[in-house]
Design a protein that fits this description.
alpha/beta, Rossmann fold, 2 domains, two-stranded antiparallel ribbon, 8 helices, about 40% helix, about 15% strand, globular
């Protein structure tokens, strides 16, 4: 009996040693529980439920889901052409952008609810094929009947003289854009309140009628100087309760844009909400 007991004790000791070794290895290698990934796209992955899980649990998230499905259907039917993506990847790209687009949709809803204008006015600087503003206008239609959207874009290649030295490699980018394609894409929204301002920022400001009041501004210019010019010109025109949504704030390659925006925000004594999508929001409180 003593020999059997000794053998059992020896085995238990061996198992304890092996267990302690395993715990050490796991701790050193930082292996933790892996949760199911609910979203993976745009350089981020999350294990939390998305607002649109199961079609959404609130009116806002359900309306967003409906908008997203509508857009994807129009793209699939080739009624909306998104030239910024390769045709074979376009639906996958839109899927990966859902968190970005949800924040666009949410921000418009917020701006409408927290400002007092009877006629809400929105502005987007850097419209491209109209993908972002599709979500924004869809949110505006759900939130209020009276609105106008001012859309600014060169619909041409980026100008070298409007770029910092660190941005010069972007000169000529987006030369494939076409205003008529954007108009066709947005025609599926069935709204008349879209004002197209074709030209380079900030030069275009001198040749068009700019809005005097705004509740929502979206900046997607992929360059620091034009971004700052928009902030300087339109911050005072942004109503209390409105917001600015920045697209390129924290993406690799746009460090100069972030630095310039942060410097501007410091001068204005306002805070920037840095988002995990790389976007950022400046609220006017």
């Amino acid at each position: 009996m003593k020999q059997i007991a000794k053998k059992l004790i020896d085995k238990v000791s061996i198992f304890k040693i092996l267990f302690d070794i395993l715990k050490y290895v796991l701790r050193k290698s930082s292996i933790t529980s892996v949760y199911p990934i609910h979203f993976d796209g745009w350089k981020m992955a999350t294990g939390t439920r998305t607002p649109w899980t199961n079609g959404g649990s609130s009116d806002l998230s359900r309306h967003f889901s409906e908008t997203d499905s509508k857009l994807k259907k129009l793209v699939e039917e080739k009624k909306i052409i998104l030239t910024q993506f390769k045709p074979q990847n376009v639906l996958a790209e839109i899927e990966g952008l859902m968190w970005r687009h949800y924040l666009v949709y949410w921000s418009v809803n917020y701006a409408v609810k927290n400002t007092k204008s009877k006629m809400n006015k929105f502005a987007e600087f850097g419209v491209c094929d109209g993908l972002t503003i599709f979500y924004a206008i869809s949110a505006a239609k759900k939130s209020q009947e009276s609105f106008k959207a001012y859309l600014y874009d060169a619909w041409d290649g980026m100008k070298e003289e409007l770029l910092l030295s660190s941005e010069k490699t972007s000169a000529g980018s987006y030369s494939y854009l076409n205003l008529e394609n954007t108009k066709n894409n947005l025609s599926h929204l069935n709204v008349k309140e879209l004002i197209y301002n074709k030209g380079y920022t900030p030069e275009v400001f001198d040749s068009v009628k700019n809005p005097e009041e705004l509740v929502w501004i979206h900046i997607d210019l992929n360059s620091a100087m034009p971004t700052i010019r928009v902030l300087e010109k339109f911050w005072d025109r942004l109503e209390m309760g409105g917001l600015i949504l920045l697209d390129d704030f924290a993406w690799p390659g746009y460090e100069d844009t972030q630095a310039e925006v942060e410097k501007w925000a410091c001068d204005k004594k306002c805070n920037i909400l840095h988002l995990p999508t790389g976007q950022a929001i400046v609220f006017k409180l």
